[in-house]
Amino acid sequence: MLAKYLLSFTQNPKNDILSGLTVALALIPEAVAFSFVAGIDPLVGLYGAFIMGIITALFGGRPGMISGATGAMAVVMVHLIQKGNEVGISLAEPVEYLGLQWLFITLLFVGAIQIMAGVFKLGKFVRLIPHPVMMGFVNGLAIVIFLSQLGLFKESRGTVPQWLNGLDLWVMLALVGLTMGIMFGLPKLTKKLPAALIAIIVVACITIFGGLDVSTVGSFIRDGGGSGLKGSLPVFQTQIFTFIDTISGHWDLILSTAFLLAAVGLIESLMTLNLIDEMTETRGSGNRECVAQGGANMLNGLFGGMGGCAMIGQSIINVSSGGRGRLSGATAAIALLCFVLFGAPLIEQIPIAALVGVMFMVVIGTFAWSSFRILHKIPVADAIVLITVSAVTVWQDLAIAVLVGVIMSALVFAWKSATMIRARKRIKEDGTKVYEIWGPLFFGSTTAFNSKFDVSTDPNAVEIDFIESKISDHSGVEAVRNIANKYLDSGKQVKLTHLSPDCKALLLKWNPEFETIIEDSVEDPRYYVVTNTLDADV
């Protein structure tokens, strides 16, 4: 086990360290921007990115995957923080920024929920997400990343940000284009250096030594209301335990937000894990990632971080730059903390245009361009799912989009399976009519199953053979019971053959008299029925 962990830590230290530094630079504006979205101090977002990054890098289920403060979770936090601040103002002894303390308390519950998801091995269910949903998610995500970067083409003028124009716009576009050009061309010359890091350094040198007046990381933080990047080490938030009594009457908000944050975080993290698995042709552990994410979020609550989950854009930057080991994620997290502690003046001079160019290249690399080519070749239902998931990801958020896509795919599967049930009919020499059922019998196919029989005109002896069918759920068992009772009520003989032991037990539980019409055979299939109506003593 130790040897396997050490092997996952790094196989190429140079690539992991350089790619980690690149990711650290890209993490700063993202963490700051999402802090503004949530309505909290940028340092809280940076601390959250550090804690999430270091814990998941060392203990997570996917080497090379980057975690930090994310927009999907920031949007969920907003209402909780605002409500907490309102309550803080209304107290007899007003508490400033009480919403932030509530967030820290909520993150403790978020972490516990995510750890339980890993303990009960719920992470494996990400493997059930259909491919059209995955492609739609990737495309929608690329569009979201692209749209989020457009806001950086604005500058603050008074109270309302205005789009850049004139020379400022052309300089911004030129720097973004230069960054993208370096990232596109450098790998064709050499792959020994991470193209994203070199592009950021080159563009930063041009703006610093050229004296160009452009938007930088420092100006971005100050325009958003922050005081700067400089900070200290995260400290233990002992005060949160003194604010628990302020939650009285608001536990429903705390717990509902915790479950929503946990769900959004796990869905985004496990989807990212699946995507990085495909890119690297390796396989991570979803359950281990759940536990690591939960532990990191609990530490965020205890040490004043914003909380978060896996970051798809930064993970793709890392993998594309050669970061495949745990060292890359650990380097990114430690470098981010070092920037906050020691390198703030230097990092604040990095032009936003360089980071926008990097994210634009991520968009190009993330978008599944092949979906345009195959859209007219795949089934119409799959195409609709793909487009719908992409649209909902942009319109709402990732978690809702994936849920919608999975439900749509499940309904399509149920519909197709419902049309597959067949009944071959033949007459035996003794006059018995045999129905040979073929295909799955479940809630979606019971109507089609019932339509196969003609009780009034059938002969006095009927046999229903399930050798080529599988009864999947309670609805299927109920359909068999109802059709058998119809024949018995009409005074006809009916025999049920090749049922599984589970089906027989369920039928005999409801109708003990069926013991005379159920035939046992060595050829009976063995499978379980998805139902909770069977008592343990049956």
Automatic annotation (TrEMBL):
Coiled-coil spans in chain: none
Membrane-protein topology: Multi-pass membrane protein
Signal peptide: none
Domain STAS: 430-507
Alphabetically ordered keywords of this record: Membrane, Transmembrane, Transmembrane helix
One cellular component (GO) term of this entry: membrane
Family matches, as CDD domains: STAS_SulP_like_sulfate_transporter
Broad class of where this protein is predominantly found: membrane
Compartment list: Membrane
PROSITE patterns: STAS
Membrane-spanning residues: 43-60, 102-120, 132-149, 169-186, 193-212, 253-276, 297-317, 329-347, 352-372, 384-415
InterPro entries cross-referenced by the UniProt entry: Membrane-Transporter-like, SLC26A/SulP_dom, STAS_dom, STAS_dom_sf
Pfam family, one: Sulfate_transp
UniProt name for this protein: SulP family inorganic anion transporter
Organism: Aequorivita antarctica
